[in-house]
Amino acid sequence: YISRNILRDKSALPDAERDELHVEIYNYLSWLHGKLSELEGRADKSMETEDTNDEDEGGEEDDQENPKKQAAKSNAIPGVNVDELQNVLDKLERTFAIIPNIKQEEEIFARKQQKREQKQSDEEARHQKQSQSLSEQKGAPFLEESLSASLTRLVKARELAGRPRRRSRKRRREIVETNPNRFYSRKMIHFDDLFQRLLQYKEENGDCLVPKKYPKDQQLACFVKDIRYNMTVLARQGLKHEEERIVRGMIPGKLLTEERVRKLNSIGFVWNAAKGCPKKSWEERFRECVEYHEANGKWPTQSMGTLGLWTHTQRRKYSKKEPLFMRTKVNKLDEVGFEWTPRGNTRMTWDEGFEMLMEYGRTNGHYDVPRPCEGTENGSDEHRFYNW
């Protein structure tokens, strides 16, 4: 390979891999040198034993008279020369700098390991010595015998000073509600107070239909909702009111006694909020929807209260093709340009889209319609044409 120069010209390992290869070769040769030295030592011992036996049998023999023994001494392990192998290892150490560094690291690690083992053995010996000394000593006294007098004096001193009151683990929290809109707690309901606030609401608004989300007094809104639910439960049981009962020294605020039901009925309280709301006809809702479109330029969305729900209902009936609705209502809605899809994304008909596509091709020379620019309204012709 050296004469033909095959490896030098066509392959080269990176430096890291070369260092790793050199270290592996050195480790293998070191292991081999150790094994051969061990075998050579064993061969020398066996030869010494044979020499001793020969001397015992007939005295010293000349090496020339025993050529087999002389050959064995000159070369204990045929085919391998331990001294020359050691020269190879020395050459590797002098040539490649990585090998001495690795040897130094291994020596440092071995010394540290030896120190740890020595420390561990010393620690075990110390513990063994302590345990042995403790076993030889007299047993430890009992706790009751050592502290009996001291604990007795401690108890007497406490009785003379008076036993302190034990603190409760539960924190006493005094709830002082200054802002009724901050939160709503069912533990703080007082019927008479909320009844007066309900009267004030009626004077300001003309009815007792407190909305679910009433920013001025959310506690009142929750109270009205709860007593309506309680009355619904009583009606299912065939009852008109509840029996009066005392809980923690007071009548619960939501308890609908006969007297409280009478007081609420006297001010025109509506127990069913759905029946209390005036119902508008289809024509009235239609006019409100058209007026909203004329004022805002768009149709009401589903999240816009009752008018938005009415708009959603018309679109749902149109999608289901209800016969009565298609005969009587669709034409009126089409006359005002009502959009049958939400958010103004009225679908473009095929003929309308094809006509716009041909016009776009004549103007731009291609039919690759780009996405509308940012800021363009969803209901615009650009969006409708792009979606088509």
Q: Your description of this structure?
A:
The protein has 388 residues and is mainly alpha-helical. It is 62% helix and 0% strand. It has helices at 6-10, 15-58, 67-74, 82-95, 98-136, 143-161, 191-205, 218-236, 258-266, 273-276, 282-296, 305-320, 323-328, 330-335, 350-364, 381-387. Helix 2 (15-58) runs antiparallel to helix 4. The two termini are 74 Å apart.
User: Which structural class best describes the helix and strand composition?
Assistant: mainly alpha
On the 0-100 scale, what is the average pLDDT?
Answer: 75
List low-confidence stretches. 173-187
Describe the biggest sheet?
A: none
Q: Short description, anyone?
A:
This protein is mostly helical and 388 residues long. 62% of the residues lie in helices and 0% in strands.
